[in-house]
Write a structure and sequence with these properties.
homodimer; Dihydrodipicolinate Reductase, domain 2; threonine biosynthesis (chains A, B); binds NADP nicotinamide-adenine-dinucleotide phosphate; Rossmann fold; Alpha-Beta Plaits; 3 domains
């Protein structure tokens, strides 16, 4: 039996998952890859840290060079996270002809072109299935299975933390703050939750997915991003009454040759499969011109699901090592896509505002909308507090630019206390 | 630009899809595979047939040898169907060092070992993603993405025709016969619907999925099979009242080292994602010891979705042609799995019978169940017709053997007019 040595960079959540899977499924992995997989060195920051995993201490090191200079190590698995030193370590490993597997969405989203160019130049493989959707085979899906398609849309719930929070707010009618606190207690959210709740994490992931789906490097700066911190229980309640559920979606669409790229809270029809993806589950809907609509659903994070993707990538490398496989899509922008301006997005909108409770206010606001070509599907007036009332408008399908112009004008009115929230509605349907 | 010639065997539904995708997505395919894909010869039965596809007549042939002996053809795509002559054509093609792609579940399920052994012996690839779940990447999922997992369960809706019929019966409360008639009119069911409604088609597919999931050749004779012809609107209505939906499921589970393999109508909790897979959509739920639960959902048939899988396989071959990829799982039984006897299956059961409406009948039946260790969760008595009543029992979790023994005894009772239906209930939950 051939043997392969792996250098593991990082022994946190994902590193632990990788270690445990390689131990637990040793026999299957041998049979399926033809190799005995041996994690021979592990890079950590602190050797003496207490760890919830049974790893022989002598294989831990704090010196990356011990792994880099070890010629018996053929594959480096990077599960440290962040840009530095991770990207540097990956590049140096590839220059030493070591294949690389990573689960690092930030590195791939921001340095993907450099990393993948290096891999081709050095004749080694770089796989990153774990970087989006945990154990859901979405990267491979786009690179391999759907290769016969022109992809038209990729729409997904690709952040487990915010989905957990929104699910909890919906089910238990608690505030964002309460739901976040529980997510932190349960280990679903980090102490500093910014990356998740402000939607940076799903922005990186959408960047990767759209680069693969549309055969071109997408820069994160192209992506319109809004987090979920402004979602109130009352918005969720209105959504429910209107037949919707609020989800944080990553949306990438090819609209008339322009790419629409956005991550934001979205109202989704309650009977759509995405509406029923709860807690820390992820799901990605892909529309291709041959396959039609396809949905992949599963655990989007966690040490074992992410480890499943990472170890799957290791096996792919072993199977292809005599003839490295590259997927060029991400490597360089051939003809850069035209990016659709956010003002050109078209959908329905939910707009909630607090206004003074006096005659003529509704008329004034409606006339502002009208002048900006925004027409209304419905208006709900509810909840009186002192001299104010809450107004909710649902628009017909409208250009975002017209909504923004209207909101600028509406905000100037003395009778409008506050525009509380504007949420896009996507009337997704399965064909 | 390199060019590859393809010989297409069959120009029916799937053949048409393959042709159209290769035409329509030519540019993407070039960019992604590095090849210009050229379908240079097509085998059909009748050259003069009117076809809904714009193919130059001069490339059609009725003589397989024209393709076999053409050394410029590197890949043969078999979309004729059935065992003969398809299997023979595939084997002869491989012996001529041509790679093969097929969507033929019957051929893979029954002759998979021979076909895959030949592929390895001849050093050519044989891919068959289109054979299960149309455009859903389930074969590749098991072969590649989930390779790091011990698979515990594969449960799926893998026949579009019966799912269409059951969805229609559920939504419109029509009979099986009416729903079948409409499915035939719409082209979802064939003139002779036996293969679908008697569940042969999903049996072949489950055979393939379980062979891949459990690393061993599963023989179709191991699979317990029941079709949907006996499902009545009243069963669907009872299911609804009890919070279930009836679906035809293929189920493969590893239970204590034994394989449980069955295809039959099943009651699924109404809030489970599988319950909401309607019409001709397919979905497969996979449970792995690393990835947890994963669901793949999409169009399970149709010319373009199936063509998407077939053309995806062509690209995989082009990418790997210098170093052929084999997945050995299916090739030979290493240690044959122990197959779990159907009498050892454990679940809840729905039992509907017509009995004489007289005192003591219920007691008599309950005592038979009791003697056979079947305990009841609930009993519903409804619908009086002349001197008969309809009785519905829902059992606790029970051994199938005990159910069968009870039913044998119950049938002998003079007071029991007929045991109308016995349907297994799977209380699937997402973890
Ligand atoms: N967690 C998930 O569910 C998940 C899912 C998908 C993708 N990912 C990605 O996977 C990667 C790892 O995530 P994680 O959750 O496993 O992170 P983590 O729990 O924070 O673990 C990071 C590991 O890297 C080590 N490390 C950090 N900085 C280092 C340095 N400068 N030199 C050497 N070692 C260093 C740490 O060492 P010590 O142990 O000594 O502190 C620790 O073992 C990230 O890119 C993340 O985005 C995570
Ligand atoms: N239809 C689907 O949605 C679907 C989905 C997944 C998998 N599949 C599988 O794909 C395969 C093809 O299905 P299909 O629906 O495309 O079948 P189909 O519409 O019946 O087409 C069969 C084709 O094969 C040709 N053919 C039949 N017998 C032949 C023979 N002895 N010699 C030469 N040519 C012959 C026919 O020629 P003529 O045109 O001259 O009659 C026809 O073009 C089957 O294995 C099926 O199980 C189908």
């Amino acid at each position: 039996m051939k043997k392969v040595n792996i250098g593991l960079l990082g022994l946190g959540n994902v590193g632990r998952g990788v270690w445990n899977i390689v131990e637990e499924n040793k026999d299957e992995l041998k049979k399926r890859s033809g190799y005995e997989i041996n994690i021979s060195k592990i890079l950590v920051k602190d050797i003496d840290k207490q760890r919830e995993v049974d790893v022989p201490k002598e294989i831990l090191t704090t010196d990356f060079n011990k792994i880099l200079e070890d010629d018996s190590i053929d594959i480096v698995v990077e599960v440290i996270g962040g840009i530095e030193p991770s990207v540097d370590y990956m590049i140096r490993s590839m220059k030493k002809k070591k294949h690389v597997v990573t689960a690092n969405k930030m590195a791939i989203a921001t340095k993907g072109s450099t990393l993948l160019r290096t891999s081709r130049e050095e004749g080694v493989m770089l796989f990153y299935e774990g970087s989006v959707g945990g154990g859901i085979p979405i990267i491979n899906g786009l690179n391999e299975n759907l290769v016969a398609n022109k992809i038209e849309e990729v729409i997904g719930i690709i952040n487990g933390t915010t989905n957990y929070i929104l699910s909890k707010m919906t089910r238990e009618k608690v505030s964002f703050e309460e739901a976040l606190k529980e997510a932190q207690e349960k280990g679903y959210a980090e102490a500093d939750p910014t990356s998740d709740v402000e939607a940076f994490d799903p922005m990186y992931k959408l960047c990767i997915l759209s680069s693969l789906a549309f055969d071109n490097v997408v820069n994160i700066s192209y992506i319109h991003r809004e987090g979920i911190t402004n979602i109130k229980p009352i918005d969720i309640e209105y959504a429910r009454e209107l037949g919707y559920v609020i989800k944080l979606l990553g949306i990438a669409k090819d609209v008339d040759g322009e790419l629409e790229l956005r991550v934001h809270p979205t109202m989704v029809p309650a009977n759509h499969p995405l509406a029923n993806v709860n807690d820390s589950f992820n799901a990605v809907l892909i529309k291709g011109n041959a396959v039609g609509e396809l949905m992949l659903y599963g655990r989007g994070a966690g040490e074992l699901p992410t480890g499943s993707a990472v170890v799957g990538d290791i096996v792919s490398i072993l199977r292809n090592r005599d003839n490295p496989l590259y997927y060029s899509k991400f490597e360089e922008a051939t003809i850069p896509h035209k990016i659709r301006d956010i003002n050109k997005v078209q959908c329905e909108y939910y707009i909630r505002m607090t206004v003074k409770d006096k005659p003529g206010v509704l008329g004034e606001i409606c006339s502002i909308f009208g002048k900006n070509n925004v027409s209304m599907l419905s208006v709900i007036q509810k909840g009186r507090r002192e001299e104010c009332v809450s107004l909710v408008f649902i628009t017909h399908n409208t250009l975002e630019g017209n909504i923004r112009k209207s909101m600028d004008k509406v905000s100037l009115s003395n009778d409008v206390v506050k525009v509380e929230n504007v949420i896009r509605i996507e009337n997704l349907g399965l064909q």
